[in-house]
Amino acid sequence: MSILLVSTSRDPKQWAASLKEKNDALDIQIYPDVDRPEDVEFAISWKHPEGLYQEYPNLKVIASMGAGVNHILKDEQLPKYVKVTRIVDDQLTKDMSQFVLLQCLAVSRNLFKHLNDQSSKSWNTKPYQTPEKTSVGIMGFGVLGQAAGKVLKSNGFDVIGYANSSKTVDGIEVYGSDQQDEFLKNTQILVCLLPVTSETKGVLNLRLFEKLKQDAYLINVARGEHLVEEDLIRAIDQGALRGASLDVFQQEPLPESHPFWSHENIQITPHIASMTDPESVANQLLENYRRMKNGESLMNEVNVDKGY
Amino acid sequence: MSILLVSTSRDPKQWAASLKEKNDALDIQIYPDVDRPEDVEFAISWKHPEGLYQEYPNLKVIASMGAGVNHILKDEQLPKYVKVTRIVDDQLTKDMSQFVLLQCLAVSRNLFKHLNDQSSKSWNTKPYQTPEKTSVGIMGFGVLGQAAGKVLKSNGFDVIGYANSSKTVDGIEVYGSDQQDEFLKNTQILVCLLPVTSETKGVLNLRLFEKLKQDAYLINVARGEHLVEEDLIRAIDQGALRGASLDVFQQEPLPESHPFWSHENIQITPHIASMTDPESVANQLLENYRRMKNGESLMNEVNVDKGY
Prior knowledge:
- The structure is a homodimer of 308-residue chains.
- With 308 residues, chain A is α/β, with parallel strands linked by helices.
- Chain A is built from nine helices and 13 strands.
- Chain A has two domains: 107 residues, Rossmann fold (3-Layer(aba) Sandwich), CATH 3.40.50.720; 179 residues, NAD(P)-binding Rossmann-like Domain (Rossmann fold), CATH 3.40.50.720.
- In chain A, helix 7 links the parallel strand 10 and strand 11.
- The longest helix of chain A is centred in the first third of the chain and has 19 residues.
- The first copy, chain A, is elongated, with a radius of gyration of 21 Å.
C-alpha cells in the first residue's frame, strides 16, 4: 500500500520529507516517478494533470494539499468512487485572515496610492479613512470568511457578511442570497472568500461591481474563476471600483502579457494569501490515511456534488 | 483677547472653522493676516516660521496641532515664559497603532517585495513569516508606543519595547536604556516612536542598525530627525537592513532630488501615519484656552526642558 504525491506547482519532495518525518515506514511514490500505480490507495494532490487518476485502479482517497479542492473536482475524468478531502488548518485560516486584514488596512490608509505617488516622486497627503468608517463585505462566510470577519472587526472595521442564508455570527450581520443587492449597497471593500462552484464562477462581474458603495475596492483571495477579468478593468475604468488586490487568477502564474500586471490600480500577489506548511498538516493527512485503511469516516471530506 | 492660528503646511482655515463651530464668539486671527498681535494670548501652531513668536508680547500658550512639539521647541527665539501643549487624542493614538500594524503585516507578508515583483512582471511565491515568528521592537514606549505594542501583540506579533527604564507593560517586556544591545539583538522589525530630544536625534544610525537581528526592517513613524539618512542607505546596501518604511523625513515634503524616492527597498508615505482631525481636537484646545484665561493648570503641557 502506498501514498502518491502529485504536484505540478509545489515541491512534492518537501511534502514527502514532512510525512516521512512522522512515519519513516511509509511507502511514498512521487509523480511522475511511479512504478507501482496499483499499490496507490491514497493520493496527496495539487493541480494534477487532467485524467491522471484513471491510471490508479485502487485509488480510494485524493487529499488536496490546500483548502481548495476545485483543482481536483474540475477533472471530468475523476474516478466516481474516489473520496476527496481538503485541508482545514488553523494556521491556514489565521494566515488568510491576516492577509485580508493587511489588504483592508492598506486600502483604508491609501498605502497603494502612496506607493504609486512614490514612483512619481509626489508628496500627496490624502486624508485617510478610519477602519470604523470603512465597511468591509465578506462574500462567502464559511470557516475562512468568519475568521477574517472576526479579525477585521476586532481591528475596528465595520464588517458584514454574505452567505446562502441570513444569520448573525459573532455579532456580524450576514446577508442571505436573497439580499445580495443590499449587501453590495453597504459594502465598500468587497472581500471574496467563496468556494468555487458552478454558481460562484464569474460572480465578480461588472453588474455586481456597479452595485457596490462609492469608492469601492475588490480583494479576491478565493479563486481566479470567481472573477470575470475583463469586467474588472472595465469597472475600474468606469469608476465603479477604485482598484483591486488580487491574489488569485484564471491562469497561474499570471501570463506575462496579462494587462493586470501593469494596471496602476491593481495590486498583484502570487497566490500567497495562505500557503500550506507541509509540516503543520502532515498529521492531518496521515490521520486520514489511517482512517481510510481502517474503513473509518474521513475528516474534512468534501461533498463532491456541492463542490465544498 | 484672541487666538492665533499658524500653520505653513496644514490648512489653518479648516482649524478656524472647527473652533468657530464650537464657539462662534471666538476672536481668531490667522497668520499671516494678523492686525492685532498684542491681543494674542493663545496660539495654535504647526511648523511656524522661526522667531515668529517674538512679535506677540502677550502670548502665554502655544498649542501644537499634533502630538509632536519639536517644531515649536526647536525655535531658539521662543519666548521663555510661554507654555507649550501637545495634542493627546485617542483617535490619533489609534490611527498610529493601525498604521504600524499595517506596516508590520506588510513586512511579514512580503507585500512590498510582491509589489516590486509586479513592476517587473515576476511571479515569485516567496514563503512568508507569520507574525508569531516576527519580533517587533518598539523604541519609545510612551502613550503611542504602548498602544502600538498592544495592537501588534493582539494580532500575534512577538513584541518587545525599549524605554528609559526596564519594566513590563501589558505583558510586553520593555528593555531599559542600559539594555539597548539586547533589545536590538532581539528585534527584527524596529519601530521608532521616540520623542525628539537632544539624545534621540540621529539615534537611528548605522551602528544601531548593525546590532539588529538578521533580515531586519526599519519603520520610522516618529520624526525625521531620528534618522541619519545616509546611514539608512548604507545599512541597506551592506545588508544590515532589508528595507525601511518611512513616514517622516529631515525635510518635508521630501525634496524631489532625494535618493529615498527611487530606492526600491524604501517605502515612502507623506507623514500620514496619524493626522489630527481638527474637529476631534477642538474641544481639547478650547478647554486649554479656558484654563489659560482662568489661570488654571493646562492639560497635556510639555516639559520644555525635557522636550516631551
